[in-house]
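REVIEWER CHECKLIST
Item 1: Sequence provided? yes
Item 2: Single chain? yes
Item 3: Sequence as submitted:
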Amino acid sequence: MKNYIKKLGVASICISILLIIISLFMINKPVETIAVVIVLLGYVLVIDGLIHFVSYFNIKDEYRYFSFELAESIIYIILGFLIVRYANTVETILPTVVGIWIVIQGINEIQIAFNIRGIRGIEWGMVLLLSLVSIALGVGIIFKPNLSFDIMIRLAGAILLYSQIITLYDNIYFIIQVKDVKKEIKKLKDEDK
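Item 4: Structure as written out by the authors:
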């Protein structure tokens, strides 16, 4: 059990270190980082498509009638190859797509704010204000995509860096505590003898 906990802690430390490195790239080289992420996303979609393809042929016939896995696999594989092939185009339009998505989400939130307006104890005005802020940010991304996306990637990198430093500290502290507990248990066993 102790070896399992130690291996789990070491694996978690390695992942945290990797994420810290990625976060530093996001802060210092946001454009290059997003280009790599887009290509990786394409490959992940292709792999996911292949998994769905294999899965489709491994399910029983009676379940296959209700399965969309073959269609999903074809869509994911084609989409993945298109993303990899046209990564520069995807990188160019991605900020605009994100901006449009944020505006649509903001409009949905406005609708929710008006829907909950009559419910006692719910601050619908705050929901409305936050949705208007979201719409403004989305519009900003649409009209200044490169600058906005650069700032968003750097901010996300800073948040990731902060969270992973805390996680790394927690994991190292946890491993040290496990060693201390192990010593205490051994000490108690020796005293009992």
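Item 5: Key structural point noted by reviewer: The chain has seven helices and no strands.
Item 6: Recommendation: ____
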